[in-house]
Amino acid sequence: MWNGNHAKAWLCSSLALVLAISGSVQAQQLAAQTAPAQKQAVSSKTVAEKARQVPMKACGEDEQKAGQKKPAANSLASLDEASASPLSGIRKIATGVIFDEAGYGWRPGISYAIDQAGNAWRWGVQAGQWLDFPQKLAGIENVKEVTWGYALTNAGDVWRLGEQAQPEKIAGLDHIRSIRELIGNEEILALLKDDGTVWTLKQGERQPRRLGSFAKVSALYGSAFSLFLQEESGKLFYLDGKRQELKAELAHVVDVPGAVKQIALDYSDRAMIQTANDEVYLFNAKEKTWTRAPREAEEAVKMAVGGDGLYLFSKKDGTLWGWGHNTLGMLGEQYPDRVELPVRIADLTDIVDVQAGTDHILALQKSGHVFSWGSNMTGQLGRMPRLFTEWTEIGELKDVRQIATGLGQPYFVRKDGTVWGIDEQRQPYQVAGPKNVQTIDSVLNAAVTLDTAGHVQLWTDQFGTCQTLALPGTVKDVVAGEERLLLRLADDGLFAVELRHELVEKNGVYVPANITVGEMEAAQIDPAVAARIAKLYANAYLFFATTKEGEVLYAEQTARQPSFQSVPGVKGVRELAPQYFVRYTADPLSVWALSDAGAVRELQFQLDRHKDEWNIAQVSVAGEAEEGIAFASGRLRITKDGQLYEKDWSPLVKKQIPRPVRLVASTYDYAIEGPGSHYHVIVTEDDKVVVLGYNPFEKSSLQPQLVQTKAKP
Asked: What local confidence, expressed as pLDDT, does residue 416 receive?
C-alpha cells in the first residue's frame, strides 16, 4: 500500500483491524425462509406500474442561489480557540516521503519542523502511529535535518530514530552535512559528507559505503527511490533508483542550460530545477528530458513539488504561487484540475519556505509560524484531532429536527425548514436555497430534500445547483440508496427512481457528476402492508421499511422492480440501524433492530452478487439481544441509563454521557481494502452538537491555517 516497510506494517495492521471489525460478529444463524410482503403490487392512482422516465427541471431563482452561505445571526459556540497554541519559533520545515503505491485511495503525509533552539517536531505518520499535532522529538538536540528514521545534528552526527526507544547515535557517522532517506528503495540512507563525498547506508548494515567517486557535491536531494547530486560547479546528476539499482556508474547528467542553483522534487522523481540565472526547468525522470517552466517561476526563492505534478514557489515579496495539477484543489477550489500558469495561493504573506508532500503543503512564515493545507488523512496538517474517541461538544444549534451525515460533513434540518451546515472553523451557516425542508438524505455526493409541498429536489455542487424531480404525485417520504431513491407517495405507493451518473476527475479524485434521472418503477408490495409502513430506510444495498406493528421489510435496490419481503419472526421494532457496512466483502450485511422495550437484535443479510445485481440469499437473526438500549445508530449504542459505546470498535470506550440525547445520525465508509472512516453526530435535549468517531471537519482542508501544538477541546 504505502511504500516503505514501516508504512506497510502500520497500514497492514490498520487494514487488519478493519477486516477484524467487519467479521467480528460470531452469531448463531437462525436461517429462515423470507416471507413475501406482496400479494399484488400497489397501483398508484397517479403513476402507472410500468417504467417511466422522470424528467427534472431547474429549481426557482431563489433556490438556485444555493451554495451561498448565510452567516448565523447567533453564532454557534465554536471550539475554544484560546486553548490552541500555534507552533512558533520555527526556522525550517520539511515533509516526509510517503505515498499510496497500491492505489487504494490513501493520502498519507509526514510533516517536520525544526525550531530556533534546534528542537525537531514531527506530526502525521510517525514511528508506527499517526500524530494529529506536532510532537517534540525527545532525546536529541541541535537538529539540522530529520527524516522518517534518522536525524542529523549541527555537529554532523547521525541519530537513528526508533519507534519506541530513545534516539541512538550511530557510531562512525560524523562530519555529515546532509542526509536523505530513500524509503521506497530498501530504506537506503544517503549521506553527504563535509568533504563533498556521498555515501549510502543500507538497512541492516553497520558501515556506509561510498557512492562512486563524487567528490565535490554541494547539495543532496532525494525522492522515495532516487538521488539528485548537485556539484559545486552547478552540474547536476540523477541517479535513478526507481527503474534500476542505485549505481554511480549509471548516473545521468541533467544538462539544463546553466549552472544549477536549487532543485525540488516529489516522491516519483519529478523535479523542478532553477539555474543560476533564475530560469526554471521541469525534469521528466522517465524520459530524462527537461522543459522550460513558465517565466513567472523565475522569481522563485524557494520551491516545492507535490504529488501528480503540483509546482510551488515563493517570491521575494513573501507571496506563494503554484501551477500544474491542482491536487485536491490545493491551488484553490476555483481553479480547474490543471492550471497552466502560476497563480497566487490564498492571501499568504511573508512566506520564506514551502514544502510539499504528495497531498499536503507546508508554508513557513517569517514570523516562525507554519501554515498547512491539503489532505489530513493521517494528521499531517497538525491542527485538529482526526479522531474523537470521547464525547466532544462542538457547539450548540437549536430546533434541530434531523441530522444528515452522508455528505462528508453534517447538515441539520431545523424546525423552520432551513438547512444548516458547519464550516472548517466549526461555525454554523444557513445553506442558501433549500427551504421548507421536511427531510434530507444523500446519494452520489448529492443532497436530496423533500419539502412540505411534497417536492423532491436534487442538490449538487455543494448545494450550488438544484433540480426538482417532476413527479406525477405528491411525495410524503424519500430515502436514498446507492444509486436509487425510494419514494412513498401520498397514496402509499412505493416507487424506486434510478439515478444515472458519470465519474469524472476533480482535483485528482474521481467523483460522481452529471447526475440524471432514469426510470421510475413501482415496488412490489402488498397494498395492505404498504399502508401500514411507519418509516423508510436505506443503505448501499437494500431498502428497508418498518410497519406500525413493528415488522421489518426489505428489498434489493438493484432489482428492476424492488420486491419487499418481511423478515420472519421479527416484531415490535421501533427503529432500524442499517448504517454500518463494509463494501466488497462476502460477510453478511448487518442491520440492527431496536424494539420499543429497548432490545436490539442483529439482522444478517447474506448477499450474492450476479453481475450488477445484489440478491439476498439468506436472512437470519444473529446472537443474543442487547438490552436496555435507548438509541442505536450503526454500531453506536446509548443505553437507557446513559452509557455510550460502539460495538466492536475499541477506541470508543463505554462511558456515561453528560447530557440526555435527542437525535443521533451516523455514516460509515469502509471497504475490504483501503482507507475507511465513520462518524456520529448527536444533538442533545439541550441543543448541544456532539461529534464522535473520525473528525468530519478535518479529513482535508483547502484553507491554509496555522499548525497547532495543542488540541482544541
From this structure: 98
